[in-house]
Write a structure and sequence with these properties.
Elements: H1 4-30, H2 36-58, E1 72-77, E2 82-87, H3 93-107, E3 120-132, E4 135-147, E5 157-160
Parallel strand pairs: 2-3
Antiparallel strand pairs: 1-2, 3-4, 4-5
Amino acid sequence: MLTTSDFLQYTQWMGIATLVFAALTLLSFIFKWGIRFRLVGTTGFMLVLTGGLFALSLAPLSRTVIPGAVRYHLVYDNGGTQAVIIPSTPISPSQLEATLRQAASDLYSYGRLGSREENNLTIRARTVIHPEPGVSVPLYLGQLKRSLANREDPQMVSEIYEERFALLPQSKG
């Protein structure tokens, strides 16, 4: 997997190539070559690619993998302080805690909007149970609160509602 330092090196090489093409474009206008306007387009496109590579060198591309986490689906995210996931079932309380931590890592973003009252991201895990035909009831299994400002939040607080796991349908296996 490419790292940010790899992208920085690619940015340097692409920047040099862009400068060479800019000089070539300038020469083409001085000597009135027929391809001068194509060189303008090529130089502009190389400038855009250089900017993109530079942007990739600033942001980390690695994804943290939490051991014990199961797959989940994001069903609600207001882009700010609340998100809801549905973990795959059957799931144990320890797997749910790992899955909530995985979701907290995946959903962290510098662009999330916080409010003055609440500067935390709350991620809730829920499932839907059917106690009788035609009736669906959402069942919250746990939640995790993490800071919106700190990527490596040491004070994440998770609550697992273990008594609600007894309400989950048992797998037939």
